[in-house]
């Protein structure tokens, strides 16, 4: 399913690295940036998430909560978060339901891995409406963070 700008973001509940449940609909009142990434501990994913870490003040200023989402287990994500000193929650979509719901899952990744999240970004406003959606087919590319920040700036 393709997520369209102007539609209500599909709700979900996923565990974070401490196995706390994070429910999207409970984030209303804040802008939300969802960043789906293929796999922890890979070079492009690490660079992408570390750039978010280094820019977290920008997101905080935009009243935005950032969530990284992958199909890795909570334990793998916890180790990745710790090693990279990430300062925002990582959520485990181990069962691949949310990635499928957001239309950002590979049928086959690098030829043989099934059900890996496509690198994607969604900005959801404080009312739960999708204001930005980008799903990349090439895992070597990263979302347009300039466009994401411009979208966030327009929401405040």
Describe what you observe in this structure.
This protein is an alpha/beta fold and about 160 residues long. Helix 3 (about 75-85) links the parallel strand 4 and strand 5 (about 90). It has a single domain, classed as Glutaredoxin. The protein is built from 5 helices and 7 strands, in the order βββααβαβαββα. The longest helix has 12 residues, at about 45-55. The model has no long low-confidence stretch (mean pLDDT about 95). The strands form 2 sheets. A 5-stranded mixed sheet has the order 5-4-3-6-7. The protein has a two-stranded antiparallel sheet with strand order 1-2. The radius of gyration is 14 Å and the shape is globular. It has helices at about 45-55, 55-60, 75-85, 95-100, 145-155; strands spanning about 15, 20-25, 30-35, 65-70, 90, 120-125, 130-135.
Described by its quaternary structure, the protein is single chain
Mean of residue pLDDT? 94
Number of individual domains: 1
Uncertain regions spanning at least 5 consecutive residues: none
What is the first-to-last residue Cα distance? 29 Å
Helix content: 25-40%
Radius of gyration: 14 Å
Corresponding CATH superfamily = Glutaredoxin
> Which secondary-structure class do the elements indicate?
alpha/beta
Query: In CATH terms, what is the fold-level topology?
Result: Glutaredoxin
CATH class: Alpha Beta
Percent of sequence in beta strands: 15-25%
Largest sheet: 5 strands, mixed
Gross morphology is: globular
How many β-strand stretches?
7
Give, in spatial order, the strands making up the sheet with the most strands: 5-4-3-6-7
């Amino acid at each position: 399913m393709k997520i369209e700008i102007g539609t209500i973001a599909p709700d979900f509940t996923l565990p974070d690295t401490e196995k706390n449940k994070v429910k999207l609909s409970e984030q209303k009142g804040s802008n939300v940036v969802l960043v789906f990434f293929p796999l922890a501990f890979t070079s492009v994913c690490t660079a992408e998430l570390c750039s978010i870490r280094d820019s977290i003040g920008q997101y905080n200023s935009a009243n935005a909560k950032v969530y990284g989402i992958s199909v890795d287990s909570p334990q793998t994500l916890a180790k990745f978060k710790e090693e990279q000193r990430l300062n925002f929650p990582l959520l485990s979509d181990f069962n691949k339901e949310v990635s499928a719901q957001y239309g950002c899952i590979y049928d086959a990744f690098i030829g043989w891995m099934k059900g890996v999240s496509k690198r994607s970004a969604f900005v959801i406003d404080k009312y739960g409406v999708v204001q930005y959606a980008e799903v990349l087919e090439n895992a070597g590319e990263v979302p347009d963070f300039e466009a994401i920040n411009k979208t966030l700036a327009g929401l405040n």
